[in-house]
Amino acid sequence: MTLENDQEPAKYCKFCFGTEEDSTLSFVHPCRCRGSIHWVHNQCLSMWFAKANAVQQVMCIQCQTRYQKQLTLKSWRSWAIPRFGIDMFGLLEISVDLWITWRTVSGFVGMMNGTKGIFREIILCTMWKCFVASGRRFCYYGNLGLQLASSIFRVSIDDYDERREIKVRLPTDMDWEQISQSSVLN
Length: 186
Known about the structure:
Layout: E1 27-28, E2 40-41, H1 42-51, H2 54-58, E3 69-73, H3 88-113, H4 118-132, H5 135-149, E4 153-157, H6 160-169, H7 176-185
Antiparallel strand pairs: 1-2, 3-4
């Protein structure tokens, strides 16, 4: 299929395969993916996030782009208690993570006070880093926090192309992270 220079290709949702003609749902381009997986309906993306694992809720599994999420406060009447969907094994994992973290922090304080040995604390810190402070666990806890936040905030995903256009228009000596942080502070 050839396209004229002034025509854009039809938008297809990469989850439901719906087109612009099929429905009135809005599209977003949340990552760097191109081609047939370029577009997705906002509603389909929200349903995907509800079912996806922790890592897939943070970044696109194809292009590894981190999603930029925005939180907008909901009306207090639409606040709800979130459904975490944590089973007994998940509760056990969280309990062990909290226990190891508490032991590591209290042991470090004890080591600084001279009541605990350094060798024991090195072992605890190593265990904490390997089992609790891994990237997957941070994604897991970040998503639990996002689920909790979504009970009072509306979560929306920024369009990747719009972010890229803003970044291109920035002066070359400005850092995107500085701009993001300064907009949060204002």
